[in-house]
């Protein structure tokens, strides 16, 4: 599992191809909403959960997949991009894990992701 205490901030850029890394983990009725990639790691938002991918080792062949179900979210906060500040942020508070912060660079679907989280949390 990813050590979220030491790796609380992910700087992510939208990357639709990154979702292929988790395609075999998805349930039959689970859909990908969006996917994002940092240097090697990534985050995929689905209709049921957030899947965090931690690529390990020199070759990157070893991967850790952490599934974060929306049902375990206690609260969340989004900050959308502005005119001069193009980055957006998502802070999620999970029961038993605590706060996880994702920072997105460039274009992202924060409002769509917010709606999916709200549908599961509220």
Automatic annotation (TrEMBL):
Gene3D superfamilies the record matches: Bacterial Pleckstrin homology domain (2.30.29.50)
Ranges where the Bacterial Pleckstrin homology domain occurs: 11-121
CDD domains: PH-like_bacteria
Pfam families hit by this protein: bPH_1
Cited InterPro entries: PHb (IPR012544), PHb_sf (IPR037063)
Protein name: Bacterial Pleckstrin homology domain-containing protein
């Amino acid at each position: 599992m990813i050590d979220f205490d030491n790796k609380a901030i992910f700087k992510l850029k939208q990357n639709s191809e990154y979702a292929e890394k988790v395609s075999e983990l998805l349930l039959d009725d689970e859909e990908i909403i969006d996917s994002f990639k940092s240097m090697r790691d990534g985050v995929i938002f689905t209709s049921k959960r957030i899947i965090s991918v931690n690529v390990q080792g020199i070759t990157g062949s070893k991967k850790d997949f952490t599934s974060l179900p929306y049902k375990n979210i206690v609260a969340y906060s989004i900050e959308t991009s502005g005119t001069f500040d193009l980055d957006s942020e998502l802070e999620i508070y999970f029961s038993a894990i605590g706060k996880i912060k994702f920072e997105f660079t460039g274009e992202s679907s924060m409002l769509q992701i917010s709606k999916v989280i709200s549908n599961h949390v509220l």
